TrEMBL record:
Organism annotation: Pricia antarctica
SUPFAM superfamilies to which the protein is assigned, alphabetical: TPR-like
Pfam families in the record: SusD-like_3, SusD_RagB
Location in or out of the cell: Cell outer membrane
Chief localisation class: membrane
Name listed for the protein in its UniProt record: RagB/SusD family nutrient uptake outer membrane protein
Swiss-Prot/TrEMBL keywords: Cell outer membrane, Membrane, Signal
One Gene Ontology cellular component annotation held by this UniProt entry: cell outer membrane
Secretion signal, residue range per the UniProt entry: none
Stated family: Belongs to the SusD family.
């Protein structure tokens, strides 16, 4: 593992290398493509470098921001400061996260994937054909994943299908449709090459089919060609019928967590039960995090940061005796960044409050005092509203105090998917060592349902949605219930925290109207909010200005509205 870490660190430096004739000899004093990519071990090290970069998706824009869910319909910026994109007027071509994601995509993911793909088909390489196919499939998968990411954030972007060995200043944007076609082709190839059974964290064939289903939906929408919906259904069916590996929707409790109070949904997200090796064959792909293990995270202090993003900042909650809570004890420390909107906290559960995904085992709505107050220590935080509509803490005798509760930052329902073993045994870090789920079969059913719906088959869509709802003991739906909004609601019920909601809304062309509908309430009276600042042109993010300025050999078009 240590050697792999050294190798993928150096790969970032050698991806863009000169190809002058006098450099054709392989350097012997350092790692390079010429002396690394010569056998299965070298290629696997290059693949490990791509996995390392992929995991950086969640930290590349700053480890306290989760821009892929913030300022959408499900989450708002909970802190009373101007950060976090709660003001869409601040989303411009100099926006730091726009540059960070762009650089991550091109300088790490695409460059490293192209490095592998440029060489892997060389017949002179000492490698078995089985290993060659699997390595190529992984590189194709990650390149496709990245172009799909870009298409669902910026729209059309340049397609780079080979390793760059000389400076280039004349990039032009390919259309979003062409980018999606390119991604679909890579995913399709990967679905024929990837292994069926893989080690934890590696990409199985089912992951390519799953992502192919999503990209085909996007192509159907952007081209108005309904045949893509048929292809999407077929790709999703390949997962559900186990043509991509032994993955299925889990319907019974499993693992060590099953001996504790909970339900099948909470078991899927239990610490130590994320991967297939632990009996979880619903999860197709998960980012791996391990405490005190080389390669277990990007750095010593960057484990799974979901608790930091999604957890309320409870340290300023005060008991009725005006004594503060401590920042963290049994729960990881949150900082109140991704504050769920009322849409997620309440509205989507009105259809069936007894939906398992809304149970106490999956959404924590009750918290306890943990400060140095013997009268209240360990007792539940009871609250109530006064005539002013503000939430206040309640005394043991039932009367309300004058201590307000900030329900955006300090006190709100918490999705329990983010609970887990503290990173490096430090509860104050806001990080955990639990692996992060990227794709699972439940979403595959929802993708197939969406494809059926868009192809004019709401009855089949309802059947697929009901597979998910039946597992959650939720009221079944009929064909008449299936709308695009309902599909988005069901995705929120099933996938919040896991799903990059921003990209889903952009993919479906629904970011602007959904943010206006569900995220318009400002955190403070008179303040701006995502919903009252978003413009129609915010349907895509801006191209980073530094990219446009550096492209001196050709005009690099900015997305409309950001000029």
């Amino acid at each position: 593992m240590k050697n792999s870490i050294v190798i993928f660190t150096l790969l970032a430096l050698i991806t863009f290398s000169c190809n002058d004739d006098y450099l054709d000899e392989a350097p012997l004093d350092r790692l390079s493509p010429e002396n690394l990519l010569i056998n299965e071990t070298g290629f696997d090290a290059a693949i490990v470098a791509i996995y390392q970069a992929a995991r950086e998706e969640y930290t590349v824009a700053g480890n306290v921001f989760e821009y892929m869910t913030l300022s959408t319909d499900i989450a708002e910026w909970g802190r009373n400061d101007p950060r976090g994109n709660k003001d869409y007027d601040l989303l411009n071509s100099s926006f730091g996260a726009a540059s960070s994601y762009w650089d991550w995509a091109y300088e790490q993911m695409i460059a490293r994937s192209n490095l592998v793909l440029e060489t892997i088909d060389d017949p002179n390489i000492n490698i078995s054909e089985e290993a060659r196919a699997n390595i190529k499939g992984q590189a194709l998968f990650f390149r496709a994943y990245t172009y799909n990411f870009l298409a669902n954030l910026y729209g059309g972007v340049p397609i780079i299908d080979g390793r760059l060995t000389l400076p280039k200043f004349d990039f032009v944007r390919d259309s979003r449709a062409d980018v999606l076609r390119f991604a679909a082709n890579d995913f399709n190839q990967a679905s024929q090459l990837l292994a069926l059974e893989v080690d934890d964290g590696r990409i199985p064939r089912a992951a390519a089919f799953h992502m192919l289903s999503e990209v085909y939906i996007s192509l159907g929408m952007v081209t108005n060609d309904n045949s893509f919906y048929d292809k999407s259904v077929a790709a999703a069916t390949s997962v559900i019928n186990k043509e991509g590996g032994d993955y299925e929707l889990i319907t019974n409790r499993f693992g060590p967590a099953s001996s504790n109070p909970g339900d099948v949904f909470s078991d899927i997200f239990a610490q130590g039960q994320i991967n297939k090796s632990s009996g979880n064959n619903e999860v197709i792909w998960a980012y791996q995090y391990e405490n005190f293990t080389l390669g277990g995270a990007a750095s010593d202090n960057l484990g799974n940061t979901s608790p930091r993003f999604w957890g309320p900042s409870q340290d300023a909650i005060r008991s009725p005796n005006d004594i503060a809570n401590v920042p963290a004890d049994s729960l990881p420390r949150g900082i109140g960044v991704n504050s769920p909107t009322n849409y997620f906290k309440y509205e989507i559960w009105n259809l069936d409050p007894n939906d398992m995904r809304n149970s106490e085992f999956n959404i924590r709505r009750q918290f306890y005092y943990n400060g140095d107050d013997p009268e209240y220590f360990g007792k539940p935080i009871e609250v109530g509203r006064k005539a002013d509509g503000i939430l206040y803490t309640r005394r043991l005798d039932g009367t309300l105090t004058d201590i307000e509760l900030d329900t955006l930052f300090r006190y709100y329902p918490m999705v329990r998917k983010i609970e887990g073993t503290p990173w490096a045994e430090d509860v104050a870090s806001g990080r955990i060592s639990k692996d992060f789920i990227k794709t699972r079969v439940a979403e595959t059913y929802l993708l197939r349902a969406e494809a059926h719906f868009r192809n004019g088959n709401p009855g089949l869509a309802a059947e697929d949605i009901n597979v998910i709802r039946n597992r959650a003991n939720a009221v079944p739906i009929t064909a008449a219930d299936v709308t695009e909004n309902f599909i988005l609601d069901e995705r929120a019920r099933e996938l919040t925290v896991e799903e990059p909601r921003l990209r889903t809304l952009i993919r479906m062309g629904r970011l602007v109207d959904r943010v206006r509908t569900y995220n318009s309430a400002p955190s403070l009276v008179g303040e701006k909010s995502a919903g009252n600042t978003i413009n129609d042109f915010n349907q895509f993010w801006p191209i980073p200005q530094q990219v446009i300025d550096a492209n001196t050999g050709a005009i690099f078009e900015q997305n409309p509205g950001y000029n």
